[in-house]
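Lab notebook, design round three. We kept the backbone fixed and only want residue identities now. Task for the bench partner: fill in a sequence for the structure below.
Input structure tokens:
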């Protein structure tokens, strides 16, 4: 029997179940550090497979299976984003303003499916090494849930770790790899400005917060490009700029927020 045929036979009993599980959590997304239902659903499914999940502080969990020894870690993130689901799917988000727009529902279902298959192999004494399933909370926020995993000993005894992420540029069924770092570290950046405000007819008598925010938004990334080696892999990108109300009034405050991402730690 070929390896692909053998794998298909192992997955077959769980295929419909995992699809249904993924659609269920897609319909009930939860943002970082609030994934209570998702954590409970995972615990219920793992417990039903005869496994013993360990809850992490707040939300998220991990679960060991297989013989004693160095562990291979399989990691999924479980949180959603504060974005409206506009997919129109039958299993679209039922939570206003929250959706699995980054594919963490797929990551979660994939690691759960792998865990169920590995649990079957373990019961047959066909699992040769220890496996740790980690369902990490709060990947999309800072500080992230990885700190909770580490604090709970999630990396203790781990020899190798594997994770994946959905990529809309890759075809279904295709796995993309590359040597070295494939994703970057990130820090949130928030700049708040305050001024006297005033009327747009007399900008010379005001501290023009909107104009100043525009300078920050355009000039900070430009300054970074002149202060750092172009090969450093640093990107400063804004995701929100917010100020004011009436078109003829200069506001007294405003802010611009974004992320600084780096493959070499230059944003730290």
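Proposed sequence:
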């Amino acid at each position: 029997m070929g390896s692909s045929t053998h794998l298909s036979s192992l997955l077959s009993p769980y295929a419909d179940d995992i699809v249904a599980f993924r659609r269920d959590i897609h319909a009930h997304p939860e943002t970082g550090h609030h994934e209570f239902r998702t954590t409970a659903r995972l615990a219920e499914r793992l417990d039903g497979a005869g496994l013993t999940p360990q809850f992490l502080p707040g939300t998220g969990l991990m679960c060991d299976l297989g013989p004693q020894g160095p562990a291979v870690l399989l990691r999924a993130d479980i949180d959603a984003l504060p974005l409206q689901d506009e997919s129109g799917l039958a299993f679209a988000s039922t939570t206003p303003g929250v959706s699995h727009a980054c594919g963490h529902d797929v990551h979660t279902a994939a690691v759960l499916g792998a865990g169920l298959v590995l649990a079957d192999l373990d019961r047959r004494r066909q699992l040769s090494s220890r496996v740790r399933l980690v369902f990490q909370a709060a990947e999309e926020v800072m500080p992230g849930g990885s700190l909770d995993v580490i604090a709970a000993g999630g990396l203790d005894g781990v020899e190798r770790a594997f994770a994946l992420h959905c990529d809309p540029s890759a075809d279904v069924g295709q796995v993309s790899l590359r040597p070295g770092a494939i994703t970057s570290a990130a820090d949130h950046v928030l700049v708040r400005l305050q001024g006297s405000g005033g009327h747009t007819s007399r900008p010379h008598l005001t501290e023009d917060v909107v104009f100043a925010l525009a300078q920050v938004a355009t000039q900070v990334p430009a300054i970074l490009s002149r202060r750092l080696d172009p090969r450093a892999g640093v990107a400063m990108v804004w995701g929100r700029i917010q100020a004011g109300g009436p078109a003829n009034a200069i506001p007294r405050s405003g802010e611009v927020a974004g992320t600084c991402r780096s493959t070499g730690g230059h944003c730290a």
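Keep this in mind before ordering anything: The mean pLDDT is 92.
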